[in-house]
Amino acid sequence: MGKEQAKSRNGHSIFEISSLIQKALRRSDTRMALYAAAEMLPKYRNYLWKRLLTVSAEDCHDMVTQKIMKLHSEDICTATGYSNEPIEKAISILLGARKNRDGDYYACNLFNSRDKRTFDTGYGKEIFDAESATKNGHSCYFLREVFNRAIDILDYDNAGYAANEIRVYYPKFCWEMIVNKASTLGYPLLTKEVRALKDADKQTNGDNTLLFRSKAIVLMIKTIRDKSLSDLIPDEEIEEYVSLSDAPVERQRLPDYVYDCHTYIGKARGKTKKEFVRAEQSALRPLKKGLFDDASWERFFFMSEHGFWTEEYTPHPSEARVKEIENNKTPSLFDL
């Protein structure tokens, strides 16, 4: 017999309920979002927070991750137990936030270094250093300069390539590079959001996933493109906070939108990634037109079929060397 699946309060698969909370928030489906949250409480409280933080980066145009992280920090068990108020406020913010999937698109299609690239003279002369090599044989210090330059000139492809190359061997160095670049743009609120994304990455996935880094890069790109941060700032006031007391108590039939290619039932129904991309894009509420709404996902589909990496790698640097680089104990090639 197979391993018994974890179950929610009313006996749903917890993985289907996890799918429900994210998809309901994408659709601003208040009733189902509340039902999903109530199904995860109290046993899967930490898992619920991970899904809320993921939605803040994957599905929201607005800079809301810092708000969700703050509410997460306020979700403390006292002598009388947990209050649901932080979760209710987080759900309210995410229901009302303007939606697009730019962060997810960037993570799936552009934050990738599958095949080695060369760079034109606009990025300076590449200097190889075996002691700071990335998986494709670049110097991580050179790629830091490539990343900074690519962000400045809105070169989405090379920014994603450089960031992923560094992330594979030097994940902390990658985050430091992203945070430092955000801080040079002169918008304290942007820097605060990027730091919150870094903290959310550590909170949810152990500090080395693509999504939160991708959202940070997308925010910088939009800020430079618009020469302003104003379009990314969410409304300060929520007219009415939702309450978990309004969640259906009795077992509900889950909406068909739950069962996509990421669930057992969806796979059995033959659901595909292409269908998922189309369905979730069209379901966003309230929609805020994004950078990549009309962009092709063919790169992602190709990599899903053929692999997100190549088989030949530069020899991995030693753990000691990685620590030196990530602790800034060695100079950049450009500082010598």
Please characterize this protein's 3D structure.
- The chain is mainly α.
- The chain folds into 2 domains: 14-98 and 247-282, no CATH class; 103-232 and 305-335, no CATH class.
- The protein has 15 helices and no strands.
- Helix 3 (45-58) runs parallel beside helix 5.
- The model is unreliable at 332-336 (pLDDT under 50).
In N-to-C order, the SSE pattern is HHHHHHHHHHHHHHH
Morphology call: globular
Overall strand count: 0
How far apart lie the N and C ends? 62 Å
Cα-atom radius of gyration? 21 Å
β-strand amount: under 5%
Share in helix: 40-55%
- Look at the structure and give the mean pLDDT: 92
Secondary-structure-based class equals mainly alpha
The largest sheet is:
none
Q: How many distinct domains? A: 2
Give the number of helices.
15
Low-confidence stretches: 332-336
Features:
2 domains, disordered C terminus, mainly alpha, 15 helices
Please write out the topology.
Layout: H1 14-26, H2 30-40, H3 45-58, H4 65-74, H5 85-96, H6 102-110, H7 140-152, H8 156-169, H9 171-183, H10 188-205, H11 211-226, H12 264-268, H13 273-282, H14 298-306, H15 319-326
